Amino acid sequence: MTRSWAARSGSPPGRPWRRSSADDIAEVAVAALTGSGHDGKVYELTGPRLLTFHDTVAAIAEATGRDVRYVPLTAEEYADEQRALGVPEEWVQVSDGFYAQFRAGNLASVSDDVERVLGRPPRDFADFVKAAAADGAWSA
Fold first, then answer.
1. What's the number of CA atoms in the CB half-sphere (13 Å) around residue 39?
2. Is the pLDDT of residue 6 over 70?
3. Span 17-35, average pLDDT
4. Quick one: average pLDDT of 125-129?
5. Whole-number Å distance between alpha carbons of 130 and 127
């Protein structure tokens, strides 16, 4: 039996944004907390390229071999869906604020901070999801 999955979001379908590898985020956090020279610094952690939600979902579909589709929702539809699922109102508002930044294009840039901190380029999101899928993510 093939299961179909839908990723739903309150973001514009074609607007690109930065995606990061959770492993890169963790490695930068360890470096910042245990190394010197990070006091007072703010790092913007991104992958090497911008991706749309369609790109993101396509990478997950390819890595998992599943039928996954992106379903764009308006901000209001997304908030209503979150409330219907029992998400606390505070988190609904946080999500709305995040997606407002996204819709305004404020997350459409990449930085070299991962490479500056770790001395290597950031992992591409597609490579991250392939490794995560191989480790059992999305296996339920």
1. 2
2. no
3. 92
4. 91
5. 5
